[in-house]
Design goal:
128 residues; alpha/beta; 5 strands; 29% helix
Length: 128
C-alpha cells in the first residue's frame, strides 16, 4: 500500500498552486511513511519527506528555510494546530492489508507556520 499512499500524497501536492509547491515540505508521522515518499515520490516529483520518528529526526529539513505549506500524513488536527495557522484534512490512506495503525491515516495540508521551523523541529522527535 505504500505506492497507493504516495499516489494520494502526489494528488494532494498537485492540488497546490505553483507558488505553494515551491515552498512545500512533506511530513510523515513515522519513518515508514517518510521513507515510502522518499522512495516512490520521485516518480511524482514530490519534495523530500521528513519525520520526527526515530533516526529520521536526525535528517531534518533545512532549518533555516521557512516553508509556506506542509503536507502531513498522520496525527490529528489538534496535533498540528499549535504550529500552523491553518490545517485541513484533505484525504486519508486506505489499504485493506495494512496493519490498523497504518491504515486510514489522515492527510492534511497545513499553511502558515506560527514559529520558525528551527524552533518547531526540536519538538517533533519521538523515539519508540
Amino acid at each position: 500500500g505504500w505506492r497507493q499512499m504516495v499516489e494520494k500524497v502526489a494528488r494532494v501536492y498537485n492540488s497546490l498552486s505553483p507558488d505553494e509547491k515551491k515552498s512545500c515540505i512533506i511530513y510523515g508521522d513515522n519513518y515508514g511513511v517518510a521513507g515510502a515518499i522518499r522512495l516512490f515520490g520521485k516518480k511524482y516529483s514530490l519534495p523530500t519527506a521528513y519525520s520526527g520518528h526515530n533516526s529520521y529526526f536526525y535528517w531534518p529539513p533545512p532549518l533555516n528555510s521557512q516553508p509556506q505549506v506542509i503536507i502531513i500524513i498522520g496525527g490529528s488536527i489538534r496535533d498540528h494546530e499549535e504550529s500552523l495557522e491553518s490545517v485541513i484534512k484533505v484525504d486519508e490512506t486506505d489499504n485493506k492489508y495494512a496493519i490498523p495503525h497504518e491504515n486510514r491515516k489522515p492527510i492534511f495540508i497545513g499553511r502558515g507556520f506560527k514559529k520558525p521551523l528551527e524552533q518547531i523541529w526540536p519538538t517533533v522527535g519521538h523515539f519508540i
